[in-house]
Amino acid sequence: APRLPIRSSSLRHAAVTAAAATVTMVKYAHEPSNPTKSAKARGSDLRVHFKNTRESAMALKQMELGKAKSYLEAVMERKRCIVFRRFCGGVGRTAQAKNEGSTNGQGRWPVKSVEVLLNLLKNAESNAELKGLDTDNLVISHIQVNKAQRQRRRTYRAHGRINPYMSSPCHVELTLSEKESGVAKEAEATQERKKSKKELAKLRSGAVSKSS
Question: NCBIfam families, alphabetically (predicted)?
Answer without folding.
Answer: uL22_arch_euk (TIGR01038)
